[in-house]
Amino acid sequence: MSIWECIELLNEFVDESDPDLDEPQIEHLLQTAEAIRKDYPEEDWLHLTGLIHDLGKVLLHPSFGQLPQWAVVGDTFPVGCAFDECNVHHKVAKGNKTSLPLAGLFIIRYHSFYPLHKHGAYQYLMNEEDKENLKWLHVFNKYDLYSKSKVRIDVEKVKPYYLSLIEKLNLGGLSLRQDDTATSFTQPPRPTTASEDEHLVSKIHAILDAVADRAEMHAIIGAQRNDWNHLFTNSINAISLTASLMAGISSIPVGEAAPHMLAFKLSSVILFTAATGMMLITSKIQPSQLAEEQRNATRLWEQLGRSIETTLALRAPTQRDVDEAMEKVLALDKAYPLPLLPGMLEKFPEIVEPTRWWPKIQPKQSPQAGGNGWSHELEGEMRGILRVLKAKDEQQYTTLGKLLLNMNKTLAISGPLLAGLAAISSGLIGSPALGPMPAFLGVIGGVLATAVHTLEHGGQVGMVFELFRNCAGYYRRLQEEIASNLGETDVQKRENGELFEMKVALQLGRSLSDLKGLASYASPLCEDEDIKEFAGKLF
């Protein structure tokens, strides 16, 4: 008999020891669970605990022994020690490796132990873990005692949600029998034939060849665009400084007949005009940013290639492996296009968003018996990491990206503007009405244009902006990977919890013990302003 069938079985009973409710027990279970769900929406284990906390009352049914109510319901009290004056007259789930946390098992076992949680008796029998679990029992009792209502719960509406929690917390494969034992089983996957394996291997090798080719092309183009940045920076600076020198020479008075001064003047105008045009082009395409895009693309293509090679080394590929590899190839092609025009990424976007180079993430299934390495503690740890990544790490690099973008916009406008001003001023050198002002503006404008251009492209501000976007994307992808696993209600369909925890630790540059320290940030009582540390330690 399944868990939900046992819950429905409680429709036949009313707890005679409960003076507050004369409705069937299933109504009390659902009212308790729904009240908790409303106030603690993130604590899904607590929702399920509320649903099953009185499931032991099935012992009242003939299928489970038809025990009298006095032997099943009522208060709990200890034996083997003196009774406290406040006294009034779970083991199946734990034995079958449920993912329900210890606090949930504690609540199920002791929620009717009123001398303990209401009057504080027998606390000398408790250890530190019991004291921590007692805090959750106090939270739970507000709903167990005061959620009773005449308003009926729509069972069919809420049933799918609680069925999903039963599966998620490893109670889905649990079958209760009259002898109080339990069995669980998993459906083995359909094996593939030899011909199917060979066909899938051929497909994955074709994708691997394309990935290797893409990595090589991006590496070549990245080196080329890095050379562009150095060539343009040095050439434009040389042209601007030469033009400034010629503008200064053309303004020096050497007598009435000085035809060579006209040549210097015209040359400075031509060179300043050329520098202005080249600055406009480089400000538009941002060669240093182009080079960084290709460097990151090369790294990601090589990473994808290694991932596929690892899959081939560990096991035969599946159709899902092929489909995921194809999706990743297309996502990378879209994120980092090879051609310069058309298709070049916008260098001055209106909104700064983390770079995205991955398709929708699906949990990597690890078909194993038991809890698949997941526990409530690990889920809390991952929720804490998820919150810190979003509130601190991604936010930091997005904010820095906005700052660098605004700086780069200012430099990209200022450089050509100063060079253009210098070109116009050089053309007016020698005008009696303007005196020495054109020469002054020509020389100073050229020098300032050179300084601004050096800061923008020699300092590779565009490259740093792209780097910040990529860092934000790195943390965004990790968030989606964690959220994807937590969002999968069937624990067996998630990636193995222990392996996933290790991968997250490596990607954040932390030890496994460090990760556990981030679990406290998952609490709804913790505000974003209370988060003082960053999840990532690599950068």
TrEMBL record:
Q: Name one GO cellular component term.
A: cytoplasm
Q: What is its EC number?
A: 1.13.99.1
**One Gene Ontology term from the biological process aspect of the record:** L-ascorbic acid biosynthetic process
The superkingdom listed in its UniProt entry is Eukaryota
Q: Which cofactor does it need?
A: Fe cation
Fetch the InterPro entries from UniProt.
Answer: Chloroplast_duf, Inositol_oxygenase
Residues of the signal sequence? none
Listed A to Z, the keywords are:
Ascorbate biosynthesis, Cytoplasm, Iron, Metal-binding, Oxidoreductase
List localization entries: Cytoplasm
Positions binding Fe cation in this chain are: 28, 53-54, 111, 144
Keyword Metal-binding attributed? yes
The Swiss-Prot or TrEMBL record annotates one GO molecular function as: inositol oxygenase activity
Task: List the pathway annotation.
Answer: Polyol metabolism; myo-inositol degradation into D-glucuronate; D-glucuronate from myo-inositol: step 1/1
Q: Name one Pfam family in it.
A: MIOX
Identify the enzyme class. Answer: oxidoreductase
Q: What remark does the entry make about the cofactor?
A: Binds 2 iron ions per subunit.
PANTHER family assigned: F-BOX PROTEIN WITH A DOMAIN PROTEIN
Q: Which family does it belong to?
A: Belongs to the myo-inositol oxygenase family.
Report the protein name in the record: inositol oxygenase
- The scientific name of the source species is Musa troglodytarum (fe'i banana)
Taxonomic lineage of the native organism: Eukaryota, Viridiplantae, Streptophyta, Embryophyta, Tracheophyta
